[in-house]
Design brief:
The protein is of the alpha/beta class. Helices cover 42% and strands 16% of the residues. The chain has a single domain (4-235), classed as TIM Barrel.
Length: 241
Amino acid sequence: MTGFVDIHCHVIAGIDDGPREIEDSFEMLRIARADGITSTVATPHINNGLYDTEVDEIKRGLALLKETDDRPELHMGADVRISSDLPGRIRRGEVPLINGRNFLLLELPTFGIPPMDHLRRLFATLGEMEVYPVISHPERNMIILENIRVLQEMVNHGVYCQVTAMSITGGFGREIEGFTRVLFRKGLVHAVATDAHDPKERPPVLSRAYEKVSRLFGQDTAERVFLLNPRKILQGQGLEA
């Protein structure tokens, strides 16, 4: 299989908790291309107080990665921690949308989420801006793990969900693997991405998860979440439910 679009990949060296050396970044890109990934969105963390990544840093990192030929197409994005000033930061150009279009990769805190009233207002404001949040790895959020209805309500308010390939294949443990299957059965998975951080422990590989989803949930589902929707996110088009 080829033609995968990876909308979530920490591939820029020295900018967050991804690869430390650019040689590791180049190796990640080689792995991605060999796995059938034809487009990769570089998504370093933007997390106020922990990773104060700036757009210019991402642009410089991408320019360095584009110096190698053995790679997928590269696009800019960020894995953005949710915050109250998010709409203003988007308006000021401080937070990149995926490929400069209208989807935002949005990260929740691992051990909590903001109050639902706050989330409703935030999602409504983003919708008015024609910015559509894609929640990164909701299957690894402890609150959602305990109460899936929290995620269902977010989706009801116009949010999309991206799960991690390694969650599907068991790389984060049996509980998360099982919960990820529940998300698929309930129609709460809109895209799968690698969330890769390095070439060894968390490499940019989608093919194994694609094969497993094809086997468990059918070819149509696999193509939708690995191929069709990620491509639509990259191009700024409406997603298939």
